[in-house]
Amino acid sequence: MFDRIAGIYDRLNSLMTAGLHHRWRERAVALAAVQPGASVLDVATGTGDLAFALARAVGPDGLVIGADFSEAMLEIARRKGQAPEEGDAPVRFERANALLLPHVTGEFDAATVGFGVRNFSDLDQGLRELARVVRPGGRVVILERTTPRRPPLSTFFRLWFDRVVPVIGRFAGDPDAYTYLPNSVRRFPGPEELAARMAAAGLTSIRYVLTAGGIIALHVGTVAA
To answer: Rounded to whole angstroms, how far apart are CA atoms 60 and 63?
Structure first.
C-alpha cells in the first residue's frame, strides 16, 4: 500500500494538513534536543521530510539515517536528498524493519518516528527497538495523529476523516489506502496509553504535547541510564 501511494504522498499530506505537517516536524526535532554533530535515526521515514529537518539540526558533522520498509517511499526520499542544503548533515536512507532494526544497541543520540508508529504491526516491540538503539540519556520522539475528544473539533475530525479523506483517496486513485488512514488513527492508543507503553519499553521522563486542537500528539521519552 505504501509503495502504491508514494508518488502522491507528499502532495496529499500537504493538502490534508494545510501544509502544517512541516511545522509539526520542526517541533519534533526541537523535542529530540539533538546537538550539532549528533547521530539520529528516523524510523518509518517515508519520503524523508523529518530526516531532512533533523539534518538541519545536527549540521554537517552529524549523521541522519532514514529507515522505512517501503522501497518506493525511500526512492523519493533519496531523490529529494540529492541536492542537500549547505550546512546540513548527510542523510542515508535504508530499507529496514522497525521491529528488528539493523543497528547496535546505543548507536544513536536520538530516534524519531513521524506519522508512522501507528503502522507498526507490533507497537510494543517497535517501541523497544527505538529505545534499544538510542544511547542512555538520549531521546525517542514520536509525532503522530490522534483523535480529539471534545467538540466541535471532534465532530469536524470525524467528518474529515470518515468522509472527506476517503473521497480524496478515490480522486487520487487509491481509496483503500485513504480508508486505511482514518481507521489506523481510530484504533491507535490515545496519548496517555502511548505514554504508558513508552514507559514499559524502558523510556523515562515521558511527556507529551497536544497541538492543532488535539489532532496531533508529540511524545518524548529518555532512554534510562
So the answer is: 8
pLDDT digits (tens, 9 = 90+) for 99-157: 999 999 999 999 999 999 999 999 999 999 999 999 999 999 999 988 777 676 666 66
C-alpha–C-alpha distance, residues 63 and 65, integer Å: 7
E strands present in the chain: 39-43, 63-68, 91-95, 108-114, 134-145, 203-211, 216-223
Q: Measure CA 69 to chain center.
A: 13
d(CA 49, CA 121): 23
Beta strand pairing call for 63-68 and 91-95: parallel
- Residue 36, CB half-sphere, CA atoms under 13 Å: how many? 5
Q: Give domain limits for the chain.
A: 2-9+17-143+190-223
Collapsing DSSP to helix, strand or coil, 148 comes out as coil
CA distance 63 to 93: 11
Q: Which CATH superfamily is domain 2-9+17-143+190-223 in?
A: Vaccinia Virus protein VP39 (3.40.50.150)
Q: 128: Cβ–Cβ under 8 A, 6 or more apart, which residues?
A: 201, 202
Across the beta sheet with 91-95, what order do the strands follow?
A: 91-95, 63-68, 39-43, 108-114, 134-145, 216-223, 203-211
CB 90 within 8 A of CB 84: yes
